[in-house]
Design brief:
eight-stranded parallel β-sheet; binds 2-OXO-1,2,3,6-tetrahydropyrimidine-4,6-dicarboxylic acid; 11 helices; binds zinc ion; three-stranded antiparallel β-sheet; 17% strand; 352 residues
Length: 352
């Protein structure tokens, strides 16, 4: 009889792309992430955005205060700065000295709270030069924002118009193509020549591994499956599954868990973002199991991220068990509620 895996042990994973917001709601979402992950790259798209080292230090202090009030002592936030047209080379060098993990490039208007983003990457030349010089990674939201480009094509067009020229101009710059959603992005990152250097990578979310764009319209509009970049066709999902489960160290875990209160999602103009933090690891395990590649989960979730960021791998282990978990219909979020990904359904894998 064929044996089925019922339990897997991994070095503790990290989340290399996470939104935890600020204020009252932060501790609710932080607790979900800290249950599973040792570290997370904290996205800087607050209102106003985290554009300077001093704003990031203040944000880090608020995160640490929340961790303390939750009684969590084994979780490390990795801070990022929001790149703007005005980011100076000095701020980059200061960020490096202060232990900021990365800068984030949001093309202006690309996603939630990105209005202060970069209007034209040419304006960032001196900041990018400094990043390249000090080894500061640039994390990119890889979509063009021009309204004449179809929303389903914005990632592929970004590769040609922005990413490839950027890599030509800054061949030593460390770049993470965040939350990739297309076969063009998957193949671009897989096939790019980097002279053997570990300087190009991509993160992949659980929703883009598990769903295609039909999930936004299944029997009616499904606002909780709407995120940016938007879900794509099945052929793209399959390309993402293929690279994520291939053991290629350029691809690693980044949930892009992006909490919005239920009322802000279920609205005439609903916010973009999926809340996957509640059982993110279970979701990834399901995606890897679907193609018989659970043995490749540890590299993706726990090894390739720290290697890219030149950080030590975690030493503790976690165990996932194959035991159906009911996902609640709603979870508390400050004085409101949030609808997690897969609300009201079950997920096969759970953290022991
Ligand atoms: N995408 N929502 C958000 C961010 C991400 O592009 C992203 O990183 C958010 O709400 O902050 C989303 O759909
Ligand atoms: Zn993004
Ligand atoms: Zn994000």
């Amino acid at each position: 009889m064929p044996t089925t895996t019922t339990q897997i042990q991994l070095l503790q994973p990290d989340d290399w792309h996470l939104h935890i917001r600020d204020g009252e709601v932060m501790k609710d979402v932080l607790a979900d992430t800290a249950r599973q992950f040792a570290r997370a790259i904290i996205m800087p798209n607050l209102k106003p955005p985290v554009t300077t080292v001093s704003l990031a230090s203040a944000y880090r202090a608020r995160i640490e205060a929340n961790l303390k009030s939750l009684g969590i002592s084994d979780f490390t936030p990795l801070m990022t700065l929001y790149l703007t047209d005005n980011t100076s080379a000095d701020e980059v060098r200061k960020a490096k000295a202060e232990g900021i993990a990365a800068f984030k490039l949001y093309p202006a208007g690309a996603t939630t709270n990105s209005d202060a983003g970069v209007s034209d990457i040419k304006r960032c030349h001196s900041a990018l030069e400094a990043m390249q010089a000090v080894g500061m990674p640039l994390l990119v939201h890889g979509e063009v924002t021009s309204s004449e480009i179809d929303i389903f094509d914005r990632e592929a067009v970004f590769i040609d118009q922005v990413l490839e020229p950027l890599r030509q101009n800054f061949p030593e710059l460390k770049i993470v193509f965040e939350h990739i959603t297309t076969k063009q992005a998957a193949h671009y990152v897989r096939d790019a020549q980097t002279g053997g250097k570990n300087i190009l990578a991509a993160t992949i979310t659980p929703q883009h591994l598990l769903m295609n764009r039909n999930a936004i319209f299944a029997g009616g509009i499904r606002p909780h499956n709407y995120c940016l970049p938007v879900l794509k066709r099945e052929e793209h999902r399959l390309a993402l599954i293929d690279v994520a489960t291939s053991g290629n160290s350029r691809f690693f875990l980044g949930t892009d868990s992006a909490p919005h209160a239920k009322g802000a999602k279920e609205a005439a103009c609903g916010c973009a973002g999926c809340y996957s933090a509640f059982n993110a690891l279970g979701l990834y395990a399901e995606a890897f199991e679907s193609v018989g590649k659970l043995d490749k989960l540890e590299g993706f979730a726990s090894l390739f991220g720290p290697d890219f960021y030149s950080l030590p791998r975690n030493t503790k282990t976690v165990t996932l068990v194959k035991q159906a978990q009911n996902i609640p219909a709603e979870l508390p979020l400050g004085d409101a509620t949030i609808v997690p990904l897969r609300a009201g359904e079950t997920i096969a894998w759970t953290l022991a």
